[in-house]
Amino acid sequence: MSVTIVVRRRVALSLLIVLAAAAGIAKASEVRVMISGGLATPYKELVPQFERATGNTVVTAYGPSMGTTENAIPVRLARGEAADVLIMVGDALGEMIEQGRAVRTSRVDLVRSPIGIAVRAGTPKPDIGTPDALKQALLNAKSVAYSDSASGVYVGTELFKRLGIAAEMKDKAKMIPAEPVASVVARGDAELGFQQISELLPIAGADLVGPLPPDVQKITIFSAGITSGASQPEAGRALIAFLASAAAAPALKKAGLDPFAASEK
């Protein structure tokens, strides 16, 4: 039997064990989730597996982990929208915990997420392999876009300063609220776009250039937790356990994320 088949069978077995346990905890529940874009692509692949195995239904609302747009997770919670599970930037989840909106002991760190740069599909990809090369690429660009969530906060408040080009970027770099940055790049409204790699990859019409150089990279941790007002906390915990399991790791890695759970070997 080949190593590949053995790996697949072990992953499948792990998946069945996790989901069988989840099914025993919560049956036929409706789990309400609020999730930010960093995990959206693998989440959409994994949730149907959880639903089929447990009989639960997962109802999802998408929005940024931070910011003031109407679909941002903190804004949704502040206006009273119901949720059982929050999946968002770890620091932002920490704020929800401090505000009493999420249960401290329920927090589970799921993945590490690097920031990348995208260009419009078919256009030349600049060299961004070193901080100096990245600096020159930014100086050469006519327009730059970055998100209004964790990656964009870092880019706008720290990265440009670290590269010594904050003044040069002031007029040509723009924060994009409530829209994938790669979409802005794909339609030609920005020459370069910064966001989590997992949010850049799914957008048609944009090409990933690569991650930021290690010396100026900012790794974001995405975490999950149960809300203080959860109506289905046990079903929510089962979903989080599945997303944090080795069985879910391949889908997370495919999306450009580094899961805390090691994939089966």
From TrEMBL:
* Pfam families noted in UniProt: SBP_bac_11
What's the protein name? Answer: ABC transporter substrate-binding protein
Lineage: superkingdom: Bacteria
Q: Which UniProt keywords apply?
A: Signal
Provide the leader sequence positions.
Answer: 1-28
- GO MF terms on file? molybdate ion binding
GO biological process, alphabetically ordered: molybdate ion transport
